[in-house]
Amino acid sequence: SITTEEFRPSYHFTPASGWMNDPNGLVYLDGEYHLFYQHYPDSTVWGPMHWGHAVSTDLINWEPLPVALYPDSLGYIFSGSAVFDADNSSGLGTAENPPLVAIFTYHNAEEANTSSDTFQNQAIAFSLDKGRTWEKYEGNPVLPNPGIRDFRDPKVSQITNPDGTNSWIMTLAVLDQINFYSSTDLKTWNLLSEFGKTIGAHGGVWECPDLLPFKTPLGKDKWVLLVSINPGGPQNGSATQYFIGDFENGQFTPDDTMIRWLDYGPDNYAGVTWSNLPTDQNRTLFIGWMSNWLYANKVPTKAWRSATTVPRELSLFDVDGTLLLKSAPAKELEKLRSEEYKMSQESSALPSEAVELYAEVDSDTFSITFSNEVGEKLVITKENSLVSIDRRNAGKNDFQRDFAAIHSAPMSWEAKEIRIFMDASSIELFVNNGELVMTSILFPTSPWKSVEISENLDSVKIFNLKK
Ligand code: FRU
């Protein structure tokens, strides 16, 4: 579909109008990927949080659905997750029609303005019609606050115990650490363990965790714990760190004390993964909020604020004996490729605002410059083991003082190929198909019209991306 709205992405999800932040309740059911999200429908700045809702059968085309959860007397509906309760362990559905269960945080905004510390509590809601309508559980909250102001963002996953039984595990952000809880019915939760007080990045509050099982390149089982942190990221403001280790007997034990970042750009926050994906596909699918709390409320879009990242597939890879997390663009994105342009010269006109650029890297260094008719430019380089995106002169940037910046990421190993996804107001750079990722939003006042590439890039292809 063609849109003429300034800065509106064409293939990234955005709400038609109003404010959006974190993706919530990512769950797959009967051929549909559900995307819920932190939403304030009445304004383009953050406010009383609802869960907005959209579904997709291909992770590209999103059908907007009505708001799924409205705030009520217990509070705003903050971030959380959703699971398919196939065995009806909660009793909220029936054996014939088991429920989808959403697990979220109630944030009581009035109470938050008092000296009370107990205004964030975990609660559940259920749907018996594939997420179209939701009912809040009458026994909420299911996990009351023990007296800690930051107590939120439950991510629930199902694990199989050594004895073959299943448990629900809740991974919860608690101020500057993670608490794990277990349950057999999603209604009663017991504390298993606490993690993180003295490890990892602590420049801000911990938020929106996720606990993920993986196989290493050597075939061993490993667990990854994603933890978003605001502020205190590798650039200014918010970002997502992760830990690699084991999850056994209800406890997460990291392999080492290294600080690792999921994405070195400034604009990928609060991302989490889909639950209940078909097991035969064996994929870990992630989507993030493409903004940063530093300026999310100020970016120069009009009817709406914020987009999600492209969907990404996470896996582990090894660099000189160190395990790291790779975020590859989901294979569904290849369906967006329409016309292909093979570049032979060192510069080329761009077919549209929505393009993918692919190139092989020759000697571990490269430089790519996008420019437009009003002299704005966006420069992407690798030099001296640093990958950088320079958005200082890439369009509107006077809405917040930190926005105009060069963002750099260390990459000690060799860059062999790059993929760049451009849309009307973002760039996502994947080096070696996601071994290093940088996501950045930008607001060019005229569309990018041409791209210039350095000589050490080969086999360059530009795809016009169309839904
Ligand atoms: C992360 C976050 C969450 C919270 C939500 C509120 O961006 O601060 O911790 O649940 O946003 O909208």
From TrEMBL:
<keyword id="KW-0326">Glycosidase</keyword>
<comment type="similarity">
    <text>Belongs to the glycosyl hydrolase 32 family.</text>
</comment>
<dbReference type="GO" id="GO:0005987">
    <property type="term" value="P:sucrose catabolic process"/>
</dbReference>
<dbReference type="InterPro" id="IPR013148">
    <property type="entry name" value="Glyco_hydro_32_N"/>
</dbReference>
<keyword id="KW-0378">Hydrolase</keyword>
<dbReference type="InterPro" id="IPR013320">
    <property type="entry name" value="ConA-like_dom_sf"/>
</dbReference>
<dbReference type="Pfam" id="PF00251">
    <property type="entry name" value="Glyco_hydro_32N"/>
</dbReference>
<protein>
    <submittedName>
        <fullName>Fructan beta-fructosidase</fullName>
    </submittedName>
</protein>
<feature type="domain" description="Glycosyl hydrolase family 32 N-terminal">
    <location>
        <begin position="12"/>
        <end position="324"/>
    </location>
</feature>
<dbReference type="InterPro" id="IPR013189">
    <property type="entry name" value="Glyco_hydro_32_C"/>
</dbReference>
<dbReference type="GO" id="GO:0005737">
    <property type="term" value="C:cytoplasm"/>
</dbReference>
<dbReference type="GO" id="GO:0004575">
    <property type="term" value="F:sucrose alpha-glucosidase activity"/>
</dbReference>
<dbReference type="InterPro" id="IPR018053">
    <property type="entry name" value="Glyco_hydro_32_AS"/>
</dbReference>
<dbReference type="Pfam" id="PF08244">
    <property type="entry name" value="Glyco_hydro_32C"/>
</dbReference>
<feature type="domain" description="Glycosyl hydrolase family 32 C-terminal">
    <location>
        <begin position="347"/>
        <end position="461"/>
    </location>
</feature>
<dbReference type="InterPro" id="IPR001362">
    <property type="entry name" value="Glyco_hydro_32"/>
</dbReference>
<dbReference type="InterPro" id="IPR023296">
    <property type="entry name" value="Glyco_hydro_beta-prop_sf"/>
</dbReference>
